Structures
1.
Amino acid sequence: MVSAVSIAGALVLGGVATAASSKPLTKKQFMKQADKICAAGNKATNALAQQTFGNLGPNERPDAATFAKFWAAAKAVLEVQIKEIRALNEPKADKQQVKKILAAVQAGIAEVDADLQAAETGTPFAKADKLAQQYGLKVCGAESGQ
């Protein structure tokens, strides 16, 4: 069984308020801002997981209602994070790569929505993680959520 904190850490994107600029960012600037968004989101989601699951023993699983409540809150955080990453003015040459990363995150969300157990027994965000890492992001896509 995947621990609740691992599930939270697997949630790819973080949330920090950002403003879109009119001029495209350099790749370095974009990665720095996106990773900042991810770091804040990871922190928020990890705190949510600790609050929700912190009293469970190492071999205990949350009941379905508790996990569903956690997922609803975590999903809301993820959706804000996606919106914030989209608001960044990524380098023109990287638009398709960024679009693929965010689409993979949305596919992971849909997978968990369709089957909550996918979050515990599967890897719904593995593709998004891989794409983010291939792009060069350090925090976004890091399974540890760090």
2.
Amino acid sequence: MTLMVLGVLMLALLIGGLYGYFDDTETSTGNVFTAGTLNLVPSTNGTGPVGKYTVTAGGDGINGNVVFDRIAPGDNGTITWTLTNTGNIDGTLSMVSAVTFGEGVITEPESMVPGNNGGGNGDLDQYVGVKLQRDGTYILGDAGTWGSFANLQATLNAESQSLVAGGTITYVFTWNIDSSVGNIIQGDTANIDITFALAQA
């Protein structure tokens, strides 16, 4: 009987030894997903004849614009748009613009000019010279030549530029009314509306 109990005990120890494996436990904590950010912040500035312009700088989600008022032959000015990607992923900048011209107030001196409003869209598109630079490079007009105001919309809408995280692109629009331009532009208007868009690259 003792021999049988001893045998069972030895068998139990043997089985226990066969199944007594080593084990270990490790952890992996703090696995986190954080989405990148893409944020376009525009700033608008301008210069012009004293007392003839106002600037609303705008900012993130706020419309910025420059309004020129009572401009006349010999006047000139600029609008500067500074566009910054404040996010942490790269993007592609594009824009949709609408540049419109109108007759506004038609004065008697303007109506007396032969061939007035020959283009059908007002006259500032014909008689205001413009230049547009992107980061110092001319994309409309050049250092010695004024471009056509009528071509500004197509030039803006053709833009597609890489704007890396933390990067900035600056557009400078310069306009000029030659002193030889007479009554034909009296009361005429021009309006530039631009929607800037930044998409993930």
3.
Amino acid sequence: MIGNAAFSWSSKKELVVALSSCEASYIATSMTACQAQWINMLLMELQLVKDEKMELRIDSKSAIDLEKHPVAHGRSKHIETKFHFQRDQMNNGKLEVKHCKTDEQIVDLLTKPLKQSSFDYLKKKLGMAEASN
């Protein structure tokens, strides 16, 4: 999102098999960080934004912990090096990872079956409104 506008979203089948939900979130976070960095560089080149720290919100506390404290996770040593991109971005001050409650994840509107109340809440948060006839 830039401001309150959603401008990029993607879903794809991953080419690797994650051994846990933590690892799956970590890999998805890495791919998102790569895409966000590319978009940020494009917007900087177009002089639409300045070089600012990007904020990445994820709902997996274990994936955030894995990013911040990799030494404590001996089970993660098999993760391919390319998936540690977001950790490098955090260390360079270009990316900040924050926890986002699961019920606040706007992408769930597009990826999960939701109760009507949750659907309406996330739709409003995304800035969508009912079309009038």
4.
Amino acid sequence: MVVTAIVNRVQDSTFDADILLIERFLAGDQGAFETLYRNYYDIVYSVAKGVLGDPEEAADTTQEVFRLVMRNLKRFDRRARFSTWLYRIAINRSIQQARSLHRRPRAMPLDAASAVSHETTEAADPRIQQALQQLAPSDRAILILYYWQELSLAEIATTMQCSANACKTRLFRARERFREAFERVE
């Protein structure tokens, strides 16, 4: 049964390579989840750190995201991309954590939030860091997904469970709020 499902997925042109690892994990192979964890840890941590602004809180949230994924992997809709589903969980959990802290995260270097996926040769402007930290977690999340994780509007819309037009509007508004915050920073 599992082999048939995997063969059908391989023949499907929208095959997500992670599906094979998911199927193996659900069949009892713990090593398959460890591979997913290694493949996506840095990305999830980068998103969490970008939203939360604190490395320790980001590490804790990243662990919680992977616990949620492990617990709910059997409910993952295999017609979707695993990475999109994972981004959605990471963003939602990071925003929930930021709200539960009832405080503004400390400033953190923007290049540190994306150091895993982007090499930077110059230090980020501290004014950008300060302005970003003044934004709501949901605004930081959409800006991080668009500018640092380089997701398309369609991918962000899927991740944030909204239409592409709503995503475009949210991104526009987040940019405007960022611009206003940046202008206030001295």
